[in-house]
UniProtKB/TrEMBL annotation:
Gene3D superfamilies hit by this protein: 1.10.1740.110, alpha/beta hydrolase (3.40.50.1820)
Residues bound to substrate: R221, D351
Catalytic activity: L-homoserine + acetyl-CoA = O-acetyl-L-homoserine + CoA
Subunit structure: Homodimer.
Cell location: Cytoplasm
GO biological process: homoserine metabolic process; methionine biosynthetic process
Protein name: Homoserine O-acetyltransferase
Keywords: Acyltransferase, Amino-acid biosynthesis, Cytoplasm, Methionine biosynthesis, Transferase
Pfam families found in the cross-reference section: Abhydrolase_1 (PF00561)
Molecular function, one GO term: homoserine O-acetyltransferase activity
Role noted for this protein: Transfers an acetyl group from acetyl-CoA to L-homoserine, forming acetyl-L-homoserine.
Family recorded in the similarity comment: Belongs to the AB hydrolase superfamily. MetX family.
Encoding gene, per UniProt annotation: metXA
Domain (AB hydrolase-1) ranges: 47-356
């Protein structure tokens, strides 16, 4: 067995041999990338699939999370007998640059000072994350990817892969994603960032080893989580039901069930995420605009591409609505790219791609099997 023969997920770290050049003009030395891999890289290295995670995700896509003990975040799509299957594929999922689950980020040690980077960490972009992933795959001996698959911010990375490394990507699956952030997306992110920075414990980002701004980060998570859901889904799950009718607290406690749910989301999030990473990654998402980087015309990002694309959206997703997917499809059509698109019915909002979605699984499975035969 070689270093990449493994049927089950294994959390690993790689230190990149060369400094990583960033869009900002800075360069990061001694970059670590944490990743999980599953399955076996075949003899001609043609079965590799890169999975890109969303804002609050990490590399633990199909194995239990080491901090929470919960199953991986995409076990509905990745695993034995699933569309992305370690019996057929060599699967890699890396914690993004700027993350907080092992990859170099604001909480990592700055080799120049011996202290955490904190806010001295350089500004990063989605393209920088993709460059780091490419360097990881170089290390793993993966030249060409069968597919890059991702939802939400993961879909942004998948699209950027096709634009930045077109000859390395045979196919892209972008789910519930967009080619740029809207003003509304940026506005919601700014509310979260301000909540973090307004927490006295943030201390200008220099809170490591002292006490993290957990209250601010929890509020940021609560605000963001609302955008991942839908009014229909919230109404069906909680409605206006109270926790108890015995005593009302006028908002000081969680009177309504939906309040209790959001508070739980916030409190559980701070156990596994770093506040500064949240600041940097949300900013990278806000900066993302594929058209801007290609003369203001999105189709230019995919000129002469041989990559095949599958785009999936959900009817109740108001964070990245179907109109954003259609915009990408129109650009791909203008670039004469091979693209398929489907809008799926779901009451679950943006988070539908993480939940039980058999129709999505059938779409992804059929698309990948078709690409494998080409």
């Amino acid at each position: 067995m070689n270093a990449h023969d493994q049927r089950f997920g294994l959390d690993r770290r790689v230190t990149l041999a060369l400094p990583l050049a960033l869009d900002s003009g800075a360069a990061l030395a001694h970059v670590e990338i944490a990743y999980e891999s599953y399955g076996t890289l075949n003899a001609d290295a043609s079965n590799a699939i890169l999975i890109c995670h969303a804002l609050t995700g990490d590399q633990h896509v199909a194995a239990n999370h080491p901090r929470t003990g919960k199953p991986g975040w995409w076990t509905r799509l990745v695993g034995e007998g699933k569309p992305i299957d370690p019996a057929r594929h060599f699967i890699v999922c890396a914690n993004v640059l700027g993350g907080c689950m092992g990859s170099t980020g604001p909480g990592s040690t700055d080799p120049a000072t011996g202290k955490p980077y904190a806010m001295a960490f350089p500004v990063i972009t989605i393209r920088d994350m993709v460059r780091a992933q490419a360097a990881l795959l170089d290390h793993l001996g993966v030249g060409t990817l069968l597919a890059v698959v991702g939802g939400s911010m993961g879909g942004m990375q998948a699209l950027e892969w096709a634009a930045t490394y077109p000859t390395r990507v045979r196919s892209v699956v972008g789910i519930a994603t967009a080619a740029r952030h809207s003003a509304q997306n940026i506005a919601f992110h700014e509310v979260g960032r301000q909540a973090i920075m307004a927490d006295p414990n943030w201390a200008g980002g220099n809170y490591y080893g002292v006490g993290a701004p957990t209250a601010g980060l929890a509020v940021a998570r609560m605000a963001a989580h609302i955008t991942y859901l839908s009014e229909e889904g919230l109404t069906a799950k909680f409605g206006r039901r109270l926790q108890s009718r015995d005593a009302l607290s006028f908002g000081f406690d969680a009177d309504f069930q939906v309040e209790s749910y959001l508070r739980h989301q916030g409190l559980s999030f701070v156990e596994r995420f770093d506040a500064n990473s949240y600041l940097y990654i949300t900013r990278a998402m806000d900066y993302f605009d594929m058209a801007e980087a290609h003369g203001g015309r999105l189709a230019n990002a995919f000129t002469n591409t041989a990559t095949r694309f599958a785009l999936v959206s959900f009817t109740s997703d108001w964070l990245y609505p179907t109109s954003e997917s259609r915009r990408i499809v129109r650009a791909l059509n203008a670039a004469n790219a091979h693209v398929s698109f489907v809008e799926l019915e779901s009451p679950h909002g943006h988070d539908a791609f993480l939940l039980d979605a058999p129709e999505m699984n059938r779409v992804v499975d059929g698309f990948l099997r078709a690409v494998e035969t080409l």
